[in-house]
Amino acid sequence: MAAKKRDRGDAHDEHDEHGEHDAHDAHDAHDAYDEHEPLADDGAVTDAESADDLIEAEDADVEISESGAGLSDGLTLDADIDHILSEAGQREIEEYRDRAARAEAELANFRTRVERDRAANREGVIADVIRSLLPAIDDLDRAAAHGDLEGSPLELVAQKLRQAFERYGLKAVGVVGEPFDPAFHEAIVQLPSAEATSQTVADVIEGGYVLGDRLVRPAKVAVSVPQV
Questions:
Q1: In terms of CB atoms within 10 Å, which of 132, 165, 181, 195 comes out highest?
Q2: Looking at the domain assignment, is residue 125 inside a domain?
Q3: Do residues 186 and 222 make contact, with C-beta atoms less than 8 angstroms apart?
Q4: Which long-range contacts (C-beta less than 8 Å, at least 24 apart) are formed by 53-60?
Q5: Minimal CA–CA distance to 188: which of 206, 173, 175, 209?
Q6: Residue 224 to residues 182, 185, 190: CA-CA distances in angstroms?
Q7: For 17-63, what is each residue's pLDDT tens digit?
Q8: CATH number for position 181
Q9: Phi/psi at 167 (5° precision)
Q10: How many domains does the chain have?
Q11: What is the span of the domain harbouring residue 225?
Q12: Please, where are the H alpha helices in 146-208?
């Protein structure tokens, strides 16, 4: 019986020793944990091995945050640049379209001027040729007025010449009785008349001709004017 009590006492003492030893080990482990596992600003345990590691980790977080903000700002700047370039490109396209439209209009006007000048030059050449032949036409007209061409070969020649001139658009001006027009008539003499109410062609001395809008030769006429 006494032996059992001694065994129980020894076991109790051993248990107390083990308890004290475990408590001491736990305290040492806590001290070691506190020494090697520093806390973050919010008190949470971190994986850093020292306070310097914790500071470096926090600095790295700040750098990542700043780099993220810089990336966002860079994307915004790129978007703004793309928008500006897009507007500039649109303005440039509109400018080129306007230039093309003006160039097309100028080309159309140039073609119109060329065609007009070409027609004018053509009429000018024809007018010069006809003008050089008018003295011969005048002689034939005077011969026809006196009846000298009737039944003669020259009558056929005179007809062919007039037909050829008419094909080119040549028209005679200066007809007795028409109003006097200084643009087409050249007054050689004025004849006062009590019956005249305005200036009119009383007689055609030499016929005039026009080719289109071009005056080849004004008609030389005698003008009947009201008597004062």
A1: 165
A2: no
A3: no
A4: none
A5: 206
A6: 14, 13, 6
A7: 444 444 444 444 444 444 444 444 444 444 445 556 556 655 555 55
A8: 2.30.22.10
A9: -65, -30
A10: 1
A11: 170-228
A12: 153-167
